[in-house]
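Retro notes
What went well: the complex prediction finally ran end to end.
Inputs used:
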Amino acid sequence: MAAAAILIARKDLYLRFSNRASLLFLLALPLGLSLIITLVFGNLGEDGPASLRDIPLAIVNLDEGTTQQGQAINFGAGLLQLFDAADLAGGAGAGAAACPFAAAAESGEPALTLNELFAMQEVQDMAAGRNMVESGELAVLVVVPADFSARLSPQIAPGATALYPQAPAVIEVYSDGGRALESQVVSAVVAGYSERLLAGNIALGSAINALIAQEPLAALRLAAAGEDEAFSGALACGFADLAGGAVTRLQQAGPADDSELRQSTRLLAFVGMAQATFFALFAAQFGVLGVIEERQAGTLQRILTTATTRSAFLAGKLLGTWVTALFQLLLLLVALSLFASLIEGRLFFLWSASLPALFAILLPLSLAVAGLGVLLVAFVQRTEQIGAIGALVNIVLAMLGGAYGFTVPEPWSSLSLIHWGVDGMARLGNGDTDVGLHALALTLQGLALFGIGLWLFRRRVEV
Amino acid sequence: MDTRLAERTTALETLLQARGLNKQYKREDGSPLQALADVDLTIHRGEIYSLLGPNGAGKTTLISIISGLLAPDSGQVVIGGHDLQDESLAARGLLGVVPQELALYEDLSARQNLRFFGRLSGLRGNELEQRIDDTLAFVDLTERQRERASRFSGGMKRRLNIGIGLLHRPQLVYMDEPTVGVDPQSRRRILDSVLRLRAGRGMTVLYTTHLMEEAQEISDRVGIIDHGRLIAEGRVGDLVLQAGEQDRLEIDLVEGSRLETGLLQELERNLPGAARVQLEESDGQGRLVVNADRGRQILSPLITALGAAGLEVRSVTVQEPNLETVFLQLTGRALRD
């Protein structure tokens, strides 16, 4: 059986790669798609590093603040200061010299300050702010709730034996759906700020707990230090690195070790890797087409009158489709990498240069789509049915895989090879080579699809 | 053993035996269609057996079952002692198929096509290459073996199609209308090839055709299938006798000859074996038509009697019954209907 399968696969590959029209199609499809992706996401005419600047942002600070040990605290006001981060970077006071922003400015390194990133304004009326977003005047509106400070503050009471921060209140980030990127940037900064406050309070709380245990008065002296200007400066500077961190986190949406990549290249890498999975589904239709053409030409019947089983025939088709899909995927990724390298002006691999990880995901992904092709053979009788039935199957897989903007809960989403393919490829694009589970899932899916397809082919397909 | 006896014994050795084959399909409206009904078929080693039947008679279903492409609802097929169900690969290894459609790869050369199907049949190495050379010579394509099949004429493609089916030297070759759509010269070549398969290679051929003269020329035996049943089987001459058809003599008289009614009755009475004598008009000419069991035997007394009556004969035609008339009588349809 194996010899017959290899023979059939070799014949298919020879015919595909020796026929000019077929070869042109094999080459043109991935090259064309890579060009389209590059044109759409690569922003080829762009000069210099991509950056988001002057994001129109408004903050409604409803925070009523809180008082601790006689000290007035308003973390909402702190958030306002954070988005106007030039003050933090260049701020006077004891903490200024230790500030990362200030240090970066002194060293001459290009650093993006938050007031360059955001064109921030404070509005008093939430409804007015929302209207500004809806009219397009603002990209994002941030609403700080009234109990923001109260919830984040440690609870210290005389005679207390322990101190716990409360759960953070929810900050609402309101944005226009068409400006998702700006919204994500703002959300990242806000979330980071909240987490840092919470973390700081936990750390502070732990220290205070220890002090309370040893010397209750020491805790009160520590809390009183909040009034000190130097302490406030250090606290503010502590948030300055948070601002940088938030931006850095956004930059890391692209390959981890390429933080200086153009934003368009990062987007190209992400989209390209994810699109590769959808592209691979074309290969499944290639496989189906091959079987139907053989049936219509009578060569399938002729093959089956030799000492060749249906299993061997389908295994040969699977093998041929597998290799074809792998070839096309590799061609697509190489072409995209070349385009990305052109944009970057240096050699750049979409898959973070990890070839073993790349093949660990490409081989099973190609197998899975080839297996899907074998399954489709059982349902498609004529060439003109491929488009409709293939599209239907692809839509179902895409829905399960979460490609339509909503997430299908587990375990249903795990049934889709798109789920595993897109996630695995996107991981590679992000520099994450931990794709073992994805490889295993895709391999199992490929084998299962082939098995079901073969069973159906033997049962219901008359030649 | 006596050579003739040995030849006869070999000729009668059963190569394919089908028993009680039944196959039912569902029509689009859900009603059942009995494609085959208790079909028994025996093909002897070394013979050319032609299977005839109008469209929709069950011919394709029967062939598909024999080729192993379709499973019967019931019944059994044994090829060379191997049950097609239980020993499928061994049985199919004895079978060579030449489908009516050109089942070959147009983008491969003649040699590449043969090599591919030869390997699928288990041939390897020098043996394969030698068989390819032999086959190319047999179908007269040696000179064009390196060319893609897409560049071949219709007749050349047909010959390559035949060659693929013969490459592994099967014991039984099934040929489905191999002369459809080819020019007379290629058709003659193909028919000669079929005859050479039996004479030179001792192959057994199961042949289907729409052309009665082909079947009559090359067949040792003929089977006629209609409505899913094998309604007649045997040598062409035997089938004609079974059908009970008579010879038909057509005598055209010279212009102005007048035949009296009394003469017709006299001829009908006196000519041995004459069943009917009548006068027909053909293009305004008088034509005497006589139906008789042995037409040629009464030809001489008939012409003598006409001469004695003062009638001059312009031409004489003797039509003997053939497969076409047998088929028409058995099925009520012409083969091409």
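What we learned: Chain A is about 65% helix and 5% strand.
What to try next: split runs per interface for comparison.
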